Amino acid sequence: MNEEMERMFSELGQQKEELKSIIDSLQEGLLVLDKQGKVIRSNESFRKIIGNQIVKGKFYWEIMRNPRFPELLKKAGLEKRKFMEDLTLADRVFMCSVTPLQGGEGTVSIFHDITELKNIEKIKKDFVTNVSHELRTPLTAIKGYAETLRKEVDTAPGKKYLETVERNTDRLINIVNDLLLLSSLEEKTVLELEDIDLRVFWGMSSEYSIRG
């Protein structure tokens, strides 16, 4: 019996060390909180994010100052499902996912660094915006000159050529406007979820509602 217990303790110790090695090798930051908001476990990546502090046993508000994180924890705890949101910590941008533990005993938070991705998105957005504005001015000028020339040209071929110029200029202007609209939508669009009772629309007799 003693040998069996020693073997079991040895296996448990080995599994614990393997789990610790796996968690510490993750590139993403890992933070596990109990239901009071106290740190149970974290990995090296997370400790680097907050400046290599000793975090175990501390409350999350002692080590993190982002005001959106408590809201994520609250929503995950109330609705018992995972929530994700971009958070800024120490001048870096992270995609933070908060998942409640089974039984409501705490939460697991994963921090994925997306700073470079955000920088690329900003460069792309700025490029599209700048190019669109640069194109709009000459296109507007071309359209104005074409409309002016239409009054001066008497021949049928000349008018046909000018109509072609105006038509294609309008197409390019519409493309520029669409690019600007898409750029603004990418910045402002936020997905909002709410419960919808489909019985209101289709006269369903079921008692179920669908989130959408």
Task: Describe the protein's architecture and organization.
This protein has 212 residues and is an alpha+beta fold. Helix content is 57%, strand content 18%. It is built from 7 helices and 7 strands, in the order αββαααβββααβαβ. Strands 2-1-5-4-3 form a 5-stranded antiparallel β-sheet. It has a two-stranded antiparallel ribbon with strand order 6-7. The protein is elongated. The two termini are 57 Å apart. The model is unreliable at 205-212 (pLDDT under 50).
Range of helix content: 55-70%
- Count of helical regions: 7
Care to count the β-strands? 7
Radius of gyration: 29 Å
Structural class: alpha+beta
Task: State the distance separating the first and last CA atoms.
Answer: 57 Å
Query: How is the quaternary structure best described?
Result: single chain
How do the SSEs run, as a string of H and E?
A: HEEHHHEEEHHEHE
Unreliable sequence segments: 205-212
Proportion of β residues? 15-25%
Mean pLDDT: 80
Shape verdict: elongated
Strand order of the largest sheet: 2-1-5-4-3
Largest sheet: 5 strands, antiparallel
